[in-house]
Design a protein that fits this description.
mainly alpha; two-stranded antiparallel sheet; two-stranded antiparallel ribbon; 9 helices; 59% helix; 11% strand; phosphatidylinositol-4-phosphate binding
């Protein structure tokens, strides 16, 4: 089985790294999906690492000791200081505002992505590119294997794939394959179940379900207001 990432909280960064690549360096073009997807990734990684848990449809803190990662500790602090156990969907929505910027900043500071800035008609535009293209290509290849049910793949890779599916961005990783056909071909549930215990799998499904619902709700609101 592939070696898991040394950073136990790598999932949010890997999700955003993959999206930065498949969106041609312009992640701002799909901010709704990325905001909510990164929030879901943070919750998923913290639950899988035993820092949070899904309990009766809500998120509860288990261990709020700092991890040393600012974007992760912000989530731990917010959940740990909450006076009540809020629903998973509410946490996904509440965390989305900061999740994208915090995680993208971490990727830039850690040297995972390069940022370029330019101005067009007085508007500041930012673009991002994986600093190590080989790392991005390996991640993309592994995620594709997970989608089509091939094993072995790592736990983190299956989680990235599950978040791509939940946010509707999985079709971007498969250019040339129509969305309907891709939905018929994918077999992600097998690899997910193979590398996770029952409780972990239930938590991942609950969180990604909330992510999918939040993305759908925001996109519907945007279409209605537009």
């Amino acid at each position: 089985m592939p070696t898991p990432p040394r950073d136990p909280f790598a999932l949010p960064g890997l999700y955003l790294l993959l999206c930065t690549g498949i969106l041609d360096g312009n992640p701002g073009s799909r901010r709704i999906e990325l905001d909510i997807g990164v929030a879901g990734a943070l919750l998923t990684s913290l639950c899988v690492q035993g820092r949070l848990r899904v309990h009766h449809g809500g998120i509860a803190a288990v261990d709020t000791c700092p991890t040393g990662l600012a974007h992760v500790d912000r989530v731990l602090d917010r959940v740990g200081s909450s006076a009540r156990v809020a629903g998973v969907g509410r946490w996904v929505e509440n965390l989305a505002f900061h999740a994208y910027g915090d995680t993208l900043g971490h990727l830039v500071r850690s040297g995972t992505v390069d940022r370029t800035v330019r101005r067009s008609f007085g508007i500041r535009l930012e673009a991002y590119a994986p600093k190590r293209p080989a790392q991005y290509e390996r991640l993309l290849a592994d995620v594709r294997l997970a989608f089509f049910g091939y094993a072995p793949v790592s736990r983190t890779v299956t989680q990235v794939a599950a978040l791509l599916r939940a946010t509707g961005l999985h079709h971007v990783a498969f250019p040339g394959i129509p969305r309907r056909r891709l939905a018929d071909w994918t077999a992600l549930d097998g690899p997910l179940a193979e590398v996770h215990g029952a409780a972990e799998l239930a938590s991942i499904k609950t969180i990604t379900g909330a992510v999918a619902e939040a993305v759908s709700g925001r996109l519907d609101t945007l279409r209605f207001c537009g």
